[in-house]
Amino acid sequence: MKDVKDLIAEVCQEVSELLCKKNDAYGNSFMFPANIFSKESALSQLHVRIDDKLNRIAKGQNTALVQEDTKLDLIGYLILERVLLKPQNLTEEELVKAFRCYPDNADTSGNVNHDMNYNKTGIKE
To answer: What's the whole-model pTM score?
Structure first.
């Protein structure tokens, strides 16, 4: 029997390969969404996807195979959220695109608005 640490590493590698494969196919759309229909931030869009997966699991209407795929997608989205929430991985310009956070209390047009104060996660404080 394999060591538990080896099994954990195998599962993590499987998830990593899936995420990298999807990133190759779709680009960095989780970080920089097209915003064609939804104008929400990347973080908000990820949270909607996570909610959808949790809802699907909670309803339990899927076959075992679909349920397993849904769980794998959920794990992937949670990892993507973790990647997205590491602002040191992004330039200031990328932070603005991904989180809709604007430095120096500027609005989306670049106009200063003292009622707006976005932190690094794009949440209005």
So the answer is: 0.69
